[in-house]
Amino acid sequence: MRVAEKPEIAKLPLFREMQDEQRERIFSSSFLQVFPPQLTLFELGQHPDFLHVLVDGLVELYATSAGRDTTIGIVEAVTSFILAAVVTDQPYLMSARTIASSRILLVPAALVREVVKDDCALMQATMRELAQAYRDMVRALTDMKLRQSAERLGNLILQQDHRQGGTGKVRLKTEKRLLASLLGMTPENLSRAFGVLGSRGISVNGPQITISDRAALEAFVRPDPVRENLA
Amino acid sequence: MRVAEKPEIAKLPLFREMQDEQRERIFSSSFLQVFPPQLTLFELGQHPDFLHVLVDGLVELYATSAGRDTTIGIVEAVTSFILAAVVTDQPYLMSARTIASSRILLVPAALVREVVKDDCALMQATMRELAQAYRDMVRALTDMKLRQSAERLGNLILQQDHRQGGTGKVRLKTEKRLLASLLGMTPENLSRAFGVLGSRGISVNGPQITISDRAALEAFVRPDPVRENLA
DNA sequence: CGAACCCTTGATGGCGATCAAACGCCGTGG
DNA sequence: CCACGGCGTTTGATCGCCATCAAGGGTTCG
Fold first, then answer.
1. Number of domains comprising chain A
2. What is the pTM of this model?
3. Between the CA atoms of B194, B200, B203 and B207, what dihedral angle is there, to the nearest 10 degrees?
C-alpha cells in the first residue's frame, strides 16, 4: 500500500485506537486499488474476501431480488464498509458498485478477523462501528415503514443540511435516480415529491436545494430528533 | 438474581465465552424481574439504563412517529435485546413492551460497558451479536423495499417453518395483528394476504399454518437463500 | 349474558408504480 | 461547429397495491 493515504485511513474511528504495530500489520497486507465508475465490486451471496475502505470516490450498496433492485446505502469517503459480513464470515447481503471513480483499500478479511482477536482496541472500534451501523439500519427501516415518500425526502434533506452545516443549502452528491432508489421510490415519484415540497418550504434547482422556509418544511415532514440524530 | 436461571442465561452466545468471574460480576449486579403482559418496558428516546435479557415470555420492539406505529422486531426467549443502544450509550431508537407475561434480566448498562472493556471474550461475543443484528436489519429492509405484502408473508412462513424444523406445519406465536405490524401492513391486508397464499400452497386454520405445496409457495414468493438464511 | 376484542370480508379511496412522451443536458462524430 | 443520439429528469395518464372505512362473525373474559 502506498504511504500517501496512510494518515487519512489511520485516522478513521475503526483504526484510530489500535496498536501501531497491529495497524502496520494490517496495512502492509492490504492494497489500494482504483476502480472506474459503474464497476461492480462484489455481489450479493459472494463470500467476503476483503474489508473495503473507500478512500476516495462514491460507492452504492444495493440489493436485488426477482428482477427488482434497491439501494441500501451510499458510501462516501472516507469510510469502511461491509464490516459485518467480514466479522461474521458470512456471504454478502448486498452488492456494491462504484458510482464515481473510486480508490478503495482492500484489507484481507481473514486478516481482519485475526487482528481483531489480538487487538482489543480494534475490536472495540469494530463493535462500536457495528452498533452504529445497526442503529442506522433501524432508522432506515422505521423511516420506510412509517413515512410516505415526500416525508422521507424532506427528512433526508433536513438531515443532509444538518450534516453540511445547517446553512439551508444542500447540494445533492448523486444522481436523482439513485436518491430515488435509496428512498425506496421511482425517479418519477421523486420528481413529484420535490414538487410537493416545493410548496412546503424548499426550492430546487438541478442538484441544488434551498430550504427557504425551514419551519414549514419541518411542520410537513415532522422530523424525529431522536431518530434523525439531528440536534 | 436468583440462581435458577443462571445456567440458561450463562449459555447464551453473548455470555458463554467470557471469564467466569466477570460473568459473576455481571450477574451479581443484575436482577430478574417479572412483567405482566402489555407493559411498556421503555420508550423511544429514553436513555438506556439496562441491557435486557428476555428469559421467558415475549417482547415487542416497536417504533412510533407522528401517530403511526410499527413493529420492528419480536423477541423470543432466551435472547438479549437493545445491545446496540447500551454499547453506544445513546437513546433507544425503539420502544419495547411485553406481549405475554415475561421474566427479564436487567443488567446495568454502565456495568456492561465496563465489563466489555475488561473481558475480550465478552467483547467479541458482543461484536458478533451486533454484526448478526445488523444483518437481520439489512434483510428486513430489503424485504420491505423489494417485496410486496403477500410475498413477505410467504417468505416469513417459509422461514418460520425452517426454524421450526421444516415440518411444513407452522404455529404462529403471536396475534395476527402483531404479525401484520411486523410485516408492515394492516391486519385487514394480512388477512387478504393469507387468502392469496391459500391458492399458492398453504392452508390456514387459526394460528396453525400448513404448507401443503411447498413448490407452489416457493414459486410464488421466490425466497432468496442468501437473504432468508435458509438452507 | 354481554361486552370487548380479534379476525374476516366487502367497498372505496389514495399513494405510488407503470407506461408514455417531451424536454434539457452532454458527449460524440460527422 | 453543429447535428445527432443517449440519458436523466420532468410531466401527464392510467393502473394496481394497499390503507381506510364499515360491518359482521367468532372467541374470550368479566
1. 2
2. 0.95
3. -40
